[in-house]
Amino acid sequence: MAKRSSLSIRIVEGKNLPAKDITGSSDPYCIVKVDNEPIIRTATVWKTLCPFWGEEYEVHLPPTFHSVAFYVMDEDALSRDDVIGKVCLTRDTLAAHPKGFSGWAHLTEVDPDEEVQGEIHLRLEVVPGTRACRLRCSVLEARDLAPKDRNGASDPFVRVRYNGRTQETSIVKKSCYPRWNETFEFELEEGAAEALCVEAWDWDLVSRNDFLGKVVVNVQRLWAAQREEGWFRLQPDQSKSRREEGHLGSLQLEVRLRDETVLPSSCYQPLVQLLCREVKLGHQGPGQLISLIEETTSTECRQEVATTLLKLFLGQGLAKDFLDLLFQLELSRTCEANTLFRSNSLASKSMESFLKVAGMRYLHGVLGPIIDRVFEEKKYVELDPSKVEVKDVGCSGLHRPQTEAEVLEQSAQTLRAHLGALLSALSRSVRACPAVVRATFRQLFRRVRERFPSAQDENVPFIAVTSFLCLRFVSPAILAPKLFHLRERHADARTSRTLLLLAKAVQNVGNMDTPASRAKETWMEPLQPTVRQGVAQLKDFITKLVDIQEKDELDLQRALSLQAPPVKEGPLFIHRTKGKGPLTSSSFKKLHFSLTTEALSFAKTPSSKKSTLIKLANIRAAEKVEEKSFGSSHVMQAIYTDDSGRLQTAYLQCKCVNELNQWLSALRKVCINNTGLLGSYHPGVFRGDKWSCCHQRDKTDLGCNKTRSWVTLQEWNDPLDHDLEAQLIYRHLLGVEAALSY
Q1: For residue 258, which of 386, 97, 408, 20 has the smallest C-alpha distance?
Q2: Angle at Cα 700 formed by Cα 696 and Cα 701, nearest 5°?
Q3: How far apart are CA 671 and CA 682, in angstroms?
Q4: Which has the higher per-residue pLDDT, 58 or 393?
Q5: Rg of the Cα trace of the chain?
């Protein structure tokens, strides 16, 4: 039995933000922190006080987390980014909203005295004295304190206050993981109501000391217990009065906490077997469970249920059969061909999830180069005469402003080139499409042709395929390439318009250039020759795509399984410590890394021969490295055992916080079942004769901070978790039990 928690986060938009730039605007982005640990950074939206992000994330984390905070920042190219404000949601707040927190929240000021983090290890005792009992407080150590100095660390000391007396520990220089092992005693009067206050501070030579957090101990409770020892979470100082909320703007959020208790696999076998048997028997079988699930699933949770069911059947090797059953169920209640798969049914939502899980790498191969070209060209493109702004275009080759007609013609040429390139790439991609995707489209094509066999409906099977491939997969990826991991940043206004027009053209091709699609926006007429040619290309592509036999499907799947596709790959900078030399960010070497279910490998270039760096089974932890170690906050460490069983560390530098967390998530997920995973680690490096984090001189010391192996970001290519998916379906069935029994 295991308890798991996850956060579904959607950062929608902001409004009425204060201007931070001299232009009277801001360049806002969001940083999401769980218990002060940055895990997400949104894209920057340039030159606006009302940014729209629309970014969604799923974060898996231990049930013991305390809060999630959203910091709105203003990006500056030359100086440090400005903090605009924050929204903080505690675990208790989220737990009080079972359907999720949704709405606008006022941004509040970021007070340094409230920006605390970390824990302190205390031993508290009531001991007998000569005249009266005494209160003994032993300050042992602290971990993960907030770095307050420019060097990425702090100079912490502890101040203990009780009954009008104050005592202080020594100062530990340049450490967020100090160890003191100092003891203080106070006279204790029986029945005294005053609390013991333990405060952590960062010592500064010139300016005032910075507050690091405090612990307030109930002495009466301690008197009853006589002794208490453990790690205490540092709390902020909330004694200051707050300014009126609302002057910093607002943030629209959708955040949902989900706590699950996952039982052993054997507990879910009856449910999984029942679902699998129903899918194997198909539409003609006696089973009605999936039909009942569809009927009792609300619009709000249909996508979640669809994704969970799909992953469950993917794990059982029955995804194609499950989708085929849903196709048949929808076809059986569809009378008009033009309404087929147009609603947000369980079939439509399941197919959307299926394409993202099974076809995302394929989408990147086909669409990636076209999207990159649109972003790089940054051309002004407009087909709607009512929206053309000639001043935005610049001058022509004759050094005169272009006319509206010239702008429209040049825009049409640009869009025809992009659309033609996309259709050509799609036509060449039949063999690159995953076998299970091709087989699923084959089933869809056959079922629709059987349901609508007349000559007047000859295009309906093609439109059924394109309704998913083009309208629910390719077009949304064109409109929002960042959400499909095709780009790291959102498009600017000019590029967004080009992408929108290209997506409209793809939709027209996907609709087989019907009169209804042409009538909507007559100004798209200049693209009609390319659209008509594209329809012929698309029909030819689909004909070849669905022409896959069972034997070919098995052969392709077998060939793909032998290739062990990468879980994640990309450029990173590596530094493996040897000797006692200085460790700096300049000593990192750039290489191309590839993570599979077997090993973490590297090569000089993506096409070069790979060399294994670490066997996956040898990894013991994947964690962040504190900023002061290399002068960068984007360094991670992979701790592993070498052939002789000794612990070694590989330090890898990423380019941003998102890349850092994506690599950490990927490493943690593929290693989660490894034996010998570490419970603690050193966030610093062993430099000279001691650890830079806690200053301990024993290189084999167990570590001064807790590992975070369960903190991961959900990705489309995550390993399947059969027990969790079964638990989610079981929980859903419990929620609709009344409807099922009826």
Answers
A1: 97
A2: 45
A3: 19
A4: 58
A5: 30
Place of tokens 């000019």: 494
Instruction: State pLDDT tens for residues 4-60.
Output: 899 999 999 999 999 988 888 999 999 999 998 899 999 999 899 999 999 999 999
Instruction: Report how far apart, in Å, the C-alpha atoms of 227 and of each of 133, 163, 221, 263 are.
Output: 13, 19, 10, 36
| Distance separating the N- and C-terminal Cα atoms of the chain | 32
Q: Which residue, among 446, 508, 447, 448, has the nearest Cα to 474 in the 3D structure? A: 508
Q: How far apart are CA 227 and CA 241, in angstroms?
A: 35
Give 139's contacts (C-beta < 8 A, 6+ positions apart): 120, 122, 158, 160, 169, 180, 181, 182, 183, 184, 198
- Residues 6 or more apart in contact with residue 321 via CB below 8 angstroms: 279, 280, 282, 313
State mean pLDDT over 185-197: 84
- The backbone torsions φ and ψ at residue 477, rounded to the nearest 5 degrees and listed phi first, read -70, -35
pTM: 0.85
Q: Quick one: which of 107, 104, 152, 160 has its CA closest to 136? A: 160
Q: Tell me if residue 569 falls in helix, strand or coil.
A: strand
Q: Ramachandran region of residue 317, left (φ > 0), alpha (ψ -120 to 50) or beta?
A: left
**At a CB cut-off of 8 Å and minimum separation 6, what does 217 contact?**
122, 124, 195, 196, 197, 198
Question: What integer pLDDT is reported at residue 549 of this predicted model?
Answer: 77
Residue 682, C-beta contacts closer than 8 angstroms, at least 6 positions apart: 691, 693, 694, 701, 703, 704, 705
Burial of 380: CB neighbours in 10 Å, binned 0-12, 13-18, 19+: buried
* Burial track 679-715 (b if 16+ CB lie within 10 A, e otherwise): eebbbbbbeeeebbbbbbeeeeeebbbbbbbbbbbeb
Specify the residue for token string 């989220």: 94
How far is residue 447's CA from residue 324's CA, in Å, rounded to a whole number?
A: 8
Average pLDDT over residues 213-221: 92
- Name the residue among 699, 672, 671 with its Cα closest to residue 685: 699
- Report the percentage of the chain scoring pLDDT > 90: 58
> Per-residue confidence at 677, pLDDT binned at 50, 70, 90?
very high
Task: Give 556's pLDDT tier (boundaries 50, 70, 90).
Answer: low
Report residue 280 as tokens. Answer: 């194997």
Would you say 439 and 548 are in contact if contact means Cβ atoms under 8 Å apart? yes
Q: Report helix, strand or coil for 88.
A: strand
Q: Give the number of other Cβ atoms within 10 Å of residue 123's Cβ.
A: 15
DSSP string covering 656-672: SHHHHHHHHHHHHHHHT
Computed from CA positions of residues 256, 261, 264, 268, in that sequence, does the dihedral angle turn out positive or negative? Answer: negative
The SS3 call for residue 447 is: helix
Question: Considering only CA atoms, which of 648, 608, 622, 588 is closest in space to residue 711?
Answer: 622
Choose among 508, 520, 507: nearest CA to 475. Answer: 507
| C-alpha closest to that of 566 among 591, 593, 592, 595 | 595
Contact 423, 307 (CB under 8 A): no
